[in-house]
């Protein structure tokens, strides 16, 4: 009973139509003699009232230059009443008003993945005060630097860094990562992540408005309110479809001389595939993308993404990880682990990006780092440290050569940098670092080409040799290097094969993302300026999701076209049959509803199906290529990132 009342509250016209029908049926059978007349008057009056409402609405739409397909339903109601088919007119009214409920259900199901993000947005935070006391405050009142307590199972309210030793977090709602992620002290914890089984303390690094989750919410709200140009194009079929239906109905009447044929044809002329099926497909496609960690800002973007013919990629942070990682450890007179432990012990307190990469590599190997360390930092050159009483010099070739005459500069591949090491006056080896290519970059490029992308290009501000090496590893032969932001914009403007998709992550990518036909930001770790300029934001730090987004968009558009074609095709067949008198009006009204249902169910297929190769398939670490060696960059500075 509760569900019936809720349905009646949400869809009063549908409920009233059903009620009128039941009362008319009751009168028809319960009132001998006068029953049929009472039923006819009741149904006819109600149908005329609904027709008047629909007619007034269409007049208002026409004044705004909008033409709807409901004119067919209106003409069908009036024509069935004119030929005495009042029961058929009631079924048409039910179809017309019931379409609202059907559309609402379809859109509700399609939006589930999008609205999940909105419903889970954090509203409050536990502010840690002095002496361990906690005060609950609104999340909008949290300021940068405040300590916050996150209880087990709670969502991190704002972007923060972990203060405790470690914690595990479920980041599936923001990144799509299905497994819990372990974060350690000092690691960034994004808002929207759900804390594990132990309470943790974090320090806010952003306000609520500037945090990851709230930015995602804003993107989702924008996506939910949008309509694709493709869907608006579907609306333009209204006039020709209406004219075709009226022509068939008029021809049937003219040839047979029977006005009933006119009514029977219009009863089966269904507008639903155009009014509902196409929008439902696009909403479902955006939901599917969100489930795969990709937020598409609007339906128009989804339609353009489906037609992409050229893909341009930034290098640093997009095709590569965007941060240096240890690529080789080249020891002299000791093992690689011994050399790495000495260097990491000397660097462990440094905030330098290369130092952090070396420490991460050492801890990742499970090496024990010394705490008996004193350090003399030499900005721009390196450092001298005493580690367990041993003099360790780490840095540039020149710095190590001052105390170690036997220092040897190894050959480097493009994009690789060296950290030289001397121990107690002797050359001890070299640690090389590079910005490694993402393991799934090559497979992503292959998938894009297989899906119909004809041209793939690298646009980067890096040196030509470095860009060429990365491009060769991922299978791209068009490389445009040493491009400043304006140069990237000019390059995209000059690319043939539209639409053009640009993928980037940094602040310097924001202008080119804005001018591309489809701008995609690697938003998991990218700059907020890039995310704001982009049409699509990838919430997961995996470039394979770009290929997923293209696959989803193309499948969505294909399903939308199928739904429109299926609905119109079935309607035309039924109209022809009705023109020959094979379908009575009351039967045609029921068949019309079946056609509507088939078209909508087909549109909802965009919710499912494989997105393509997902992140798990691409996590196998790609082997480094045998690239040509570069001449020794002997004077390379320790803090230079190529």
Which structural class should the secondary elements be placed in? Answer: alpha+beta
Low-confidence stretches: 613-642
| Count of β-strands | 22
Percent of sequence in beta strands: 15-25%
- Count of runs of 4 or more consecutive helical residues: 24
Helix content percent band: 40-55%
Rounded average pLDDT: 81
For the largest beta-sheet, the strand count, sense and barrel status come to:
7 strands, mixed
Spatial extent as radius of gyration:
33 Å
How far do the termini sit from each other? 69 Å
* Strand adjacency order, main sheet: 10-22-21-20-11-18-19
Write structural notes for this entry.
With 642 residues, this protein is an alpha+beta fold. Helix 4 (70-82) packs antiparallel against helix 11 (259-267) and helix 13 packs across helix 23 (544-579). Residues 613-642 have low confidence and may be disordered. The chain has 24 helices and 22 strands. Strand 16 and strand 17 (426-434) form a beta hairpin. The protein has a seven-stranded mixed sheet with strand order 10-22-21-20-11-18-19, sandwiched between helices. The chain has a six-stranded antiparallel sheet with strand order 2-1-3-9-4-7, with no helix packed on it. Among the domains are: 2-112 and 225-274 and 555-607, no CATH class; 123-207, Calcium-transporting ATPase, cytoplasmic transduction domain A (Distorted Sandwich), CATH 2.70.150.10; 325-434, 3-Layer(aba) Sandwich (Calcium-transporting ATPase, cytoplasmic domain N), CATH 3.40.1110. It is found in: Cell membrane. Residues 121-221 form the P-type ATPase A domain. Residues 612-642 are annotated as: Disordered. Pfam families: E1-E2_ATPase, Hydrolase. Belongs to the cation transport ATPase (P-type) (TC 3.A.3) family. Type IB subfamily.
């Amino acid at each position: 009973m509760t569900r019936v009342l809720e349905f009646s509250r949400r869809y009063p016209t549908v409920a009233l139509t059903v009620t009128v029908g039941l009362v008319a049926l009751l009168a028809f059978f319960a009132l001998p003699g006068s029953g049929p007349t009472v039923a006819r008057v009741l149904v006819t009056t109600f149908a005329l009232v609904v027709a008047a409402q629909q007619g007034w609405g269409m007049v208002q739409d026409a004044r705004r230059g909008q033409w709807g397909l409901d004119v067919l339903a209106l003409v069908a109601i009036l024509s069935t009443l004119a030929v005495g088919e009042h029961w058929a007119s009631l079924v048409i009214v039910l179809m017309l008003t019931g379409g609202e409920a059907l559309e609402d259900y379809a859109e509700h199901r399609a939006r589930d993945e999008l609205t999940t993000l909105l419903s889970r947005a954090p509203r409050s935070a536990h502010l840690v005060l002095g002496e361990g006391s906690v005060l609950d405050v609104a999340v909008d009142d949290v300021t940068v630097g405040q300590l916050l307590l996150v209880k087990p199972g709670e969502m991190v309210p704002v972007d923060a860094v972990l203060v405790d030793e470690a914690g595990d977090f479920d980041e599936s709602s923001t990144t799509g990562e299905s497994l819990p992620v372990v974060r350690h002290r000092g690691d960034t914890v994004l808002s929207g992540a759900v804390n594990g089984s132990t309470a943790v303390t974090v320090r806010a690094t952003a306000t609520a408005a500037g945090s990851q989750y709230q930015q995602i919410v804003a993107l989702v709200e924008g996506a939910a309110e949008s309509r694709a140009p493709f869907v608006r194009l579907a609306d333009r079929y209204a006039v020709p479809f209406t004219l075709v239906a009226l022509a068939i109905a008029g021809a049937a009447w003219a040839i047979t001389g029977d006005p009933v044929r006119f009514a029977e044809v219009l009863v089966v002329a269904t507008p639903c595939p155009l009014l509902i099926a196409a929008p439902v497909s696009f909403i479902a496609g955006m939901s599917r993308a969100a489930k795969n960690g990709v937020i598409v800002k609007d339906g128009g973007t989804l339609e353009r993404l489906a037609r992409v013919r050229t893909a341009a990629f930034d290098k640093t942070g997009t095709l590569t990880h965007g941060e240096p990682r240890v690529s080789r450890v080249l020891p002299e007179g000791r093992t690689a682990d011994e050399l790495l432990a000495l260097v990491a012990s000397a660097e462990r307190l440094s905030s330098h990006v290369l130092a952090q990469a070396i420490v991460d590599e050492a801890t990742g190997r499970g090496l024990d780092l010394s705490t008996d360390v004193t350090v003399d930092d030499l900005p721009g050159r390196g450092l001298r440290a005493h580690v367990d009483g041993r003099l360790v010099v780490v840095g540039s070739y020149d710095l190590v050569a001052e105390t170690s005459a036997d220092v040897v500069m190894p050959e480097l591949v493009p994009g690789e940098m060296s950290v030289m090491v001397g121990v107690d006056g002797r050359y001890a080896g070299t640690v090389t670092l590079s910005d490694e290519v993402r393991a799934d970059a090559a497979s992503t490029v292959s998938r894009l080409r297989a899906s119909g992308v004809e041209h793939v290009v690298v646009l980067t501000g890096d040196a030509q040799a470095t860009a060429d090496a990365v491009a060769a590893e991922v299978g791209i032969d068009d490389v445009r290097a040493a491009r400043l932001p304006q140069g990237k914009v000019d390059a995209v403007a000059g690319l043939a094969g539209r639409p053009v998709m640009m993928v980037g992550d940094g602040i310097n990518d924001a202008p080119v993302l804005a001018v591309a036909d489809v701008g995609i930001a690697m938003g998991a770790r990218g700059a907020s300026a890039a995310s704001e300029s982009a049409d699509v934001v990838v919430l997961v730090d995996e470039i394979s999701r770009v290929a997923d987004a293209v696959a989803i968009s193309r499948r969505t558009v294909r399903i939308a076209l199928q739904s429109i074609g299926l609905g119109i095709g079935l309607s035309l067949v039924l109209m022809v049959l009705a023109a020959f008198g094979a379908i009575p009006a009351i039967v045609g009204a029921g068949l019309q509803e079946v056609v509507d249902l088939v078209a909508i169910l087909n549109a909802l297929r965009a919710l499912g199906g494989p997105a393509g190769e997902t992140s798990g398939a691409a996590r196998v670490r790609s082997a480094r290529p045998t690239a040509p060696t570069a001449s020794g960059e002997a004077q390379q500075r320790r803090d230079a990132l190529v």
